[in-house]
Amino acid sequence: MRLPLLPRPPPLAAAVAAMPPRRRRAARSPPVPPSPPQLSSTPPPAAPSLEAPKSGTPDHDAPPSSTRRRLPLAAAAAEAKEEWHPLPLSAADLSLPLTLPTGQTFLWRRTSLYPLRFTGAVGPHLVSLSHLPDAEDGRLAFLLHSDGSRPAARAALCDYLNAAVPLADLWRQFAAADERFAEVAARLGGGGARVLRQDPVECVFQFLCSSNNNIKRIEKMVWTLAGYGERLGEVGGFVFHRFPTIQQLARVSEQELREAGFGYRAKYIVGTAKELQAKPGGGEKWLASLREKELPEVIEALCTLPGVGPKVAACIALFSLDQNHAIPVDTHVWKVATQYLLPELAGKSLTPKLSVVVADAFVTRFGSYAGWAQNVLFIGQLPAQKVVVAEVISDNGSTKPTKRKRGVNRNHAENM
Predict the structure, then answer these.
(1) Active-site annotation holder among 267, 274, 279, 311
(2) pLDDT single digits (tens) 208-235
(3) Where are the alpha helices (DSSP H) in 244-351?
């Protein structure tokens, strides 16, 4: 007899789905073992992890490195986004420590020590300068902080830094002409002390602050003057401004500057601003025209401005008016001259007439770029002992010193 066919059982998944829900039993907590007797108040050291540190995570047990900076995440991210652009200058062409904080300008600030960076305004461009660490020649590069065209900022920087002048060739010529220069050049590393080509208006008012003054006060005064210009931004805790125009400076009162600590220089700054404002075509055009004049005419013209004497005029001519053979003669340069160039003048006092003799001797020895050679010899005369005296000599040769510890950047003033 044939048995009837039984219905096929449903698939396993369907059967499970059709089952009524199963009631869960609450899981029992394991019994808590009794606490062991406490033998010591000091907890035992944690067992070392046997796992290797994962890739991309910091190794907190690694010894601290003197070359590694621990930055906040935001600062590290910002630094990673920085875009540095190389300039056509190696460290031998321009050394930042030998160029920016050595008395040519008082507006740059050291905004980083490792790596070394200086920040300042070049016209409307707020930039930082640094030597690229991975470049074999210590290539100089810039970082643009302000809005604007990068090519325009690069062109302005190259002009400001006098990039077209072949410094290495000049130093070779100077060293061949003078043993003292060769000695100082070797001590300074063989190159890098470059003469700037500053905006003439900016240069005039900076050196009006330098008369019979010390570095720290000059920096503070110049920083105050810069504050009357357009604000460009903040870097490293310093607020930077574009240097004010003659028109902006002419609106500042003498009383306001005196209250800011300028003393008798307030009268010269206000007077020079008004004098330049009254020049036919404007003071900017008049100052720029001096770049086409001969040096004696330039010195004579600058000395018509209130507070400008022959030494300040020579500084302005050398550092902003293309007068590369101008020689600002102060006690440092006088010492070099009487020791190496004109020993017959040793023991005599510096006078305006002898300043001319010294300047002529430098030009005879070093030629049409004698001012660049003088700048190197000036840097070589700066004290290098533990405590130094940084001073700026006035036109009449008097000084007002201020003590500074070695290693403190002479260009770093208080942020005002």
Answers:
(1) 311
(2) 999 888 889 999 999 999 999 999 999 9
(3) 246-250, 254-259, 265-277, 283-289, 295-302, 310-320, 331-336
